[in-house]
Design a protein that fits this description.
This is ATP-binding cassette subfamily C protein CydC. Keywords: ATP-binding, Membrane, Nucleotide-binding, Transmembrane, Transmembrane helix. One of its GO terms (molecular function) is ABC-type transporter activity. InterPro entries: AAA+_ATPase (IPR003593), ABC1_TM_dom (IPR011527), ABC1_TM_sf (IPR036640), ABC_CydC/D (IPR014223), ABC_transporter-like_ATP-bd (IPR003439), P-loop_NTPase (IPR027417), Type_1_exporter (IPR039421). Pfam families: ABC_tran. Helix content is 62%, strand content 10%. It has 17 helices and ten strands. It folds into two domains: 308 residues, ABC transporter transmembrane region fold; 216 residues, P-loop containing nucleotide triphosphate hydrolases (Rossmann fold). It is of the alpha/beta class. The longest helix is centred in the middle third of the chain and has 51 residues. Strands 6-7-8-3-9-10 form a six-stranded mixed sheet, sandwiched between helices. A four-stranded antiparallel sheet has the order 2-1-4-5, with no helix packed on it. The structure holds adenosine-5'-triphosphate. Adenosine-5'-triphosphate binds next to helix 11.
């Protein structure tokens, strides 16, 4: 692993710790409990070692018999308290880690929401899901499997060095040096395992994607007899993940063996001290051996800490890559006062989705006076949805201005601008929640009467009343519980219950059959009375009669039917 990559990994891990700042007190408290638990284990073994060495010395006549038994009152509270400390250590560290992870998930979700307002674009849904679930989860390894055991291990090494150093500095070195080397294993191993960890995290993302994509479009997968192809993709992704995990497991095994070797080195150090020092060194050798055994427990998981650091580093990179995309339309630093009115004016707007793509708008001018119903007609791909993106600040024009109530929206926060619009588009989505919850997305304080009022105006109130669970009926994912026309009407009710003064309708009836389309547009004409409406369609049909009409041609709005 290059120095640059190592620097990136360290910076990412430090940033993760920074994200957990709010949880530092509980995280540190839990580390404290673990250190106390490890030291209690050490104290237990020290006392046991002392008792044994007293009795052995008594057997050889070097000390009075029964002295070891005097230590029993000290041993008892440690014997009783240790299991409690072990329990407390587990509970405290896991509870603290879960809180930190929950915060990280909320942080990541809000960063995505800010950065992907136009949808995930070329991103992959399964992979993003993997980042917010598996990658965030892998971060717990940084705390639970690396920092906590390292802190406990360091405390044990220092305490053992002090205890043994009081007997003989040589003994302290012989026993604690191998243990100190074991402490250095994780930071040494992490860079070696980093590439495999990166491969495993990426492979896991690809596997999720291979599973989620065909399942999300299962009807099309089955209708095209494409299960076999989908299964092949899943198999290939699973094989890549297995290969990457095998690479990680190999390094894990190596680290485990190195850890065991160092643990035995500490034990051998104590024995060597005893053998070389003769009878006088017995007490030190027994104590050293007991301490080496006591250290085995906190040190057992230490070799794996290197893999945990590498895995957390790889996952952190994937999270930050997604979370650090630029915000498409950052809110202005200094905002202007929100306008009282809502007349819409578009002046000389130019816009392209990317520098290397053609302009969608090449000097767009149009006006929608307050209370007017205006239609903008354009063929597929002319830029109708792009205009909605500009109006709602999901994208920004490269030149020109958009004014609401005489105020340039560039100086307003996105939330203030979006508060002026209720949008109903051809792919209006219902979420897998109750009808009431779906409507209250637009008006959180609306009571049931207001919801039924909007549903009635959208022409679907009676149908909802007739449902056994009424407003509490769940819609299913994407509104699967209802037909296309019914979904559109519930979505229209959501737009109507919203207090926003301007209705933006983007092909609101597209995809419905001819009769349903006409019926829906008739409902729309009545329901939108009294509101400012901008209707974007490829052709004008049915009863919707705008007061003003524009055609979208070559990125400009031309008045009239032409
Ligand atoms: N989020 C986006 N990112 C990149 N390009 C986009 C995005 N949305 C639209 N485009 C591109 O902008 C151009 C105009 O598309 P837009 O969807 O605005 O047209 P439309 O009139 O709404 O078409 P349709 O009626 O088929 O929905 C197209 O070339 C399209 O590929």
């Amino acid at each position: 692993m290059g120095v640059m990559a190592m620097g990136t990994m360290l910076a990412d891990l430090c940033r993760v710790l920074g994200l957990w700042r709010r949880r530092w007190p509980v995280l540190l408290l839990a580390v404290g409990v673990t250190v106390v638990s490890a030291l209690a284990g050490l104290a237990l073994m020290t006392l046991a070692g002392r008792a044994v060495s007293h009795e052995v010395a008594a057997l050889s006549g070097a000390a009075a018999g029964g002295a070891g038994l005097l230590l029993l009152p000290w041993l008892r509270p440690l014997l009783i308290g240790r299991p409690g400390l072990r329990w407390g250590e587990r509970m405290a560290t896991h509870a603290a880690a879960f809180r930190a992870l929950a915060d990280t998930r909320v942080w990541f979700f809000s960063r995505l929401a800010e950065r992907l307002p136009g949808g995930i674009g070329h991103g992959r849904a399964g992979d993003l899901l993997g980042r917010i679930v598996a990658d965030v989860e892998a971060l717990d390894g940084l705390y639970l499997r690396a920092l906590v055991p390292l802190a406990a291990g360091a405390a044990v090494v220092v305490a053992a060095a002090l205890i043994l150093g009081a007997i003989s500095p040589l003994l302290a070195v012989l026993v604690t040096l191998p243990l100190a080397c074991a402490l250095a294993l994780p930071p040494l191993l992490a860079p070696i395992a980093a590439r495999a960890a990166k491969g495993a995290a990426a492979a896991e993302g690809r596997l999720r994607d291979a599973v989620v994509d065909p399942l999300a479009g299962l009807e099309d997968t089955l209708a095209n007899n494409a299960e076999a192809t989908a299964i092949l993709r899943v198999e290939a992704a699973a094989a890549r993940l297995t290969a990457a995990q095998r690479g990680l497991a190999r390094r894990n095994a190596l680290a485990g063996a190195a850890g065991a070797l160092l643990g035995q080195g500490a034990l051998l150090g104590a024995l060597g001290f005893g053998i070389a020092g003769g009878e006088g060194a017995l007490w030190g050798a027994v104590l050293g051996a007991f301490l080496a055994l006591a250290a085995a427990e906190p040190f057992a998981g230490l070799p794996r800490a290197g893999i945990a650091i590498a895995t957390a580093g790889a996952s952190a990179r994937r999270l930050f890559l997604a979370a650090d995309r630029p915000v498409p339309v950052p809110d202005p630093v200094a905002t202007v006062a929100a306008p009282a009115g809502h007349a819409l004016r578009i002046e000389g707007v130019r816009f392209a989705w990317a520098a290397d793509r053609g302009e969608v708008f090449a000097g767009l001018d149009m006006e929608v006076p307050e209370g007017a119903h205006v239609a903008l007609l354009g063929p597929s791909g002319a830029g109708k949805s792009s205009l909605i993106a500009l109006l709602t600040k999901l994208a920004a024009p490269s030149a020109g201005r958009i004014l609401i109530g005489g105020v340039d929206i560039a100086g307003l926060p996105a939330a203030a601008v979006r508060g002026k619009f209720a949008v109903l588009s051809q792919d209006a989505r219902l979420f897998d929640d109750s009808i009431a919850a779906n409507l209250r997305l637009a008006a959180p304080d609306a009571d049931d009467a207001a919801l039924f009022g909007a549903l009635d105006r959208a022409g679907i109130g009676d149908l909802i009343r007739a449902l056994p669970e009424g407003l509490q009926t769940r819609c299913g994912e994407g509104g699967a519980r209802f037909s296309g026309g019914q979904v559109r009407r519930i979505a229209l009710a959501r737009a109507l219950v919203c207090a926003a003064p301007i209705l933006l309708l983007d092909e609101p009836a597209a995809g419905l059959d001819a009769a349903a389309e006409l019926a829906f547009l008739a409902t729309l004409e009545t329901a939108a009375a009294g509101r400012t409406v901008l209707l974007l369609q490829h052709r004008l049909i049915g009863p919707f009669r705008p007061q003003k009409l524009f055609r979208l041609v070559a990125g400009r709005a031309l008045p009239g039917l032409g």
